[in-house]
Amino acid sequence: xxxxxxxxxxxxxxxxxxxxxxxxxxxxSFGVYMMVNFRMTELTPTMASFNSANMLLVSGIIITCVSxxxxxxxxxxxxxxLLTFFLLLFFLMLVELSAACLLLVYERExxxxxxxxxxxxxxxxxxxxGNSTDVMSEWDVVQQNLDCCGVSNFTDWGDKVxxxxxxxxxxxxxxxxxxxxxxxxxxxxxxxxxxxxLTTGISVIVLCIVEVLxxxxxxTLFCHISRSGLGYKL
Length: 234
Known about the structure:
Mean pLDDT: 80
Strand content: under 5%
Order of helices and strands: HHHHHHH
Helix content: over 70%
Shape: elongated
């Protein structure tokens, strides 16, 4: 009976980690795609390394590496790999909880940093608008998708208001023929964060529960292998 339960545990760990590995590969591929096609380095210059493409890339690498260790450790019944898998999950859970706590404690400071960074990015966009279209296209994507204009409002652009500040269906080439989007992108981003705060919190809790279950499964299998005197054969 015990052997059957442990075999079921082993197969469950293999299947779950294989599924996570495939998800990690998908996230990694999407991150590479965004890095190649969407360069958001001038939108927030100070936090350019924390853009969505880089975050997806790092997340994909972490998920694939950790899940591969769990899959191989369970499949080969290797104590070293299972212990490494357990420690990595424990470390990741601590990092996630620490990041969530820091976000709650320093919410105002982070919001101020984002505002200052957006202002800096917009200034650089206005300076380079005459020589390059890359920076302007970054703001175009954000302003069209979030239905906003500028940091606080369209006046942030001065006399260089881009066509993306005009609502859809408006004569973008004739600024006098339309009314610019009234909401600033900073206010829209704040509203977006507040609307998804509960969903994000629940997602973090569910992720921590999954990680705890993974650690429990790994340690149970590790203890069984230790009692049987195996664990280092490949």
